[in-house]
Amino acid sequence: MKDQKTSAKGFLVTVALIFSAVLATTGVSYAIINGEPDGDGHPYVGAVHNNVVFCSGAVISPYLFVTAAHCFNYPGEQVWVTFDPEPFAPGRRKVLYYTGTWYPHPDFCLGCGPGLEFDTNDVAVVVLDRPVDLPEYAQLPTEGLVETLARGTDVTIVGYGAQYYQTGDGPREPVFLRARYCALANLITSHQTNSEEYIKLSQNPAQENGGFCFGDSGGPDLLEEGGMATILAVNSWGNNENCTGVGYSNRIDTRSALDFILSFFGKAKK
Asked: H-type helices in the chain, by residue range?
C-alpha cells in the first residue's frame, strides 16, 4: 500500500488511510486506544478526503484547516472536509461537506528527515471555499511552545482513524467505528535528531495512554489549558502497524510551520 514504507533504520507507518477501507469495514464495540467517542467535544476537528485517501485535521479559522502533508499528492487539488462526528456511520444519508484546496508545506519531503528517515515539514493547509461557522476553533501555538512543556504532559489526540485491531482467523485488521474519537497521550522528551521537528507521544495502552492510528494523519495533538485548545503538532507516523508504542507528530510551533500556516490568512476568502 502506498502509505507504508520500510527503512533500514526502523519500521515506520504513516497514518493516512485508503478511503474505501473505512466504508468496507464493519464496526464493533471497541474504542480508539484507551479513547472515547468525542461527540461535540472538539467540533473543530474534521475528516478530510479526496475520494481515495482520508485523513484528519483541525480548523483554525472559518477558512483554514490544518492537516498533514503526506495525506495527498498534488498541491492545489480539491478535497472535502466534514466536521460531522459520525460521517461514515452506516445508514448516514446526508453529511455536510466543505470543499477546499489542499496545499502542502513547500519544503515537505517524503523520507528526507534525519534519524529514522522521517518526512520533513509534514504540514498542510486546506483553504475552504466557504466559511465554517463554529463556536470555537483550534488555536495556533506560540513559537517554541513544546520546549516549555514537561515530560509526561497530557496531550489530547483527536481523529477519525481506526479504533482497534481485530484478531481472529486470518490477518489482524484495523477496526473503524466511523466516528471522531479522542484520547489522552503523554509527551515524551526526546534528544533524537528529529526532535526539533517532531514530538514523541507515548501510546501504550498498558500505561493507560491513548494513541493515533490509520486515518488519524493530520489530526491535532492538543494542549488543553484554561479553556483553550492549542495545536502542538499534527499526527504523522507510528513506529509499528499496531498503533501502540510511540507516535511521532510534526510540530507546528516551529518558525517554518507557523510562517507557512500564517501565510494563508491573507489568501483566504473573507
From this structure: 19-24, 255-262
